[in-house]
Amino acid sequence: xxxxxxxxxxxxxxxxxxxxxxxxxxxxxxxxxxxxxxxxxxxxxxxxxxxxxxxxxxxxxxxxxxxxxxxxxxxxxxxxxxxxxxxxxxxxxxxxxxxxxxxxxxxxxxxxxxxxxxxxxxxxxxxxxxxxxxxxxxxxxxxxxxxxxxxxxxxxxxxxxxxxxxxxxxxxxxxxxxxxxxxxxxxxxxxxxxxxxxxxxxxxxxxxxxxxxxxxxxxxxxxxxxxxxxxxxxxxxxxxxxxxxxxxxxxxxxxxxxxxxxxxxx
Length: 266
Known about the structure:
By secondary structure, the protein is an alpha/beta fold. It has helices at residues 37-43, 69-82, 95-106, 131-143, 146-157, 160-163, 168-178, 183-195, 222-231, 246-249, 251-262, and strands at 3-6, 9-17, 20-25, 47-52, 88-93, 111-117, 209-214, 235-239. It has one domain (3-262): Rossmann fold, CATH 3.40.50.
């Protein structure tokens, strides 16, 4: 897994496929593995996919705290610079969607087509996770019991319908176990995302945008996706009965939506 030095921290990334580049920005507690083999391999049939571990996560270098969503955005821009990519499609999910918003606003010339998945733009109309969800995750992390954390993440990230097949948990757990997700970094990611607010600026996004959200998302209500799509304005795709990790539950359909949007005629 190659790496680049960005602002004093080492960012590790994977690159797969061919065609127009697309930068994939993951969310809280996630690494490049969280995209899943099926989604990434399907997307790589149409794109040069670049997925990386955010600072402090997975194989990337340690993260000094505190940091902001803008800092994470600067990391993504630094990666593009290091790879000599002037312009790219950008897919950001959850916290990564907040990073993608800031990237599209600060560097519109770098973003060809934008895909915002299961994310939030802040402001008075934005809806953060229910208190019970946050407290449940916090309690699991505070317990020091990794198995409890994996099970809690499974329950809040995926829909009840998807979780009904218990055999699917093994793959989810394997992905979580494979790479480090330090608790201190996750807590800082949670704080950074919680104070993110692009609500009064998001209509300044000029890149053609697709918003994808599952209707059973218990992290960010689909209301958030509807508000973002109405504010930019953007195309909105609601996936019925699907949870927060929509690309995990419906990898082929998710890749199809991304490709359809990114490769559409101008």
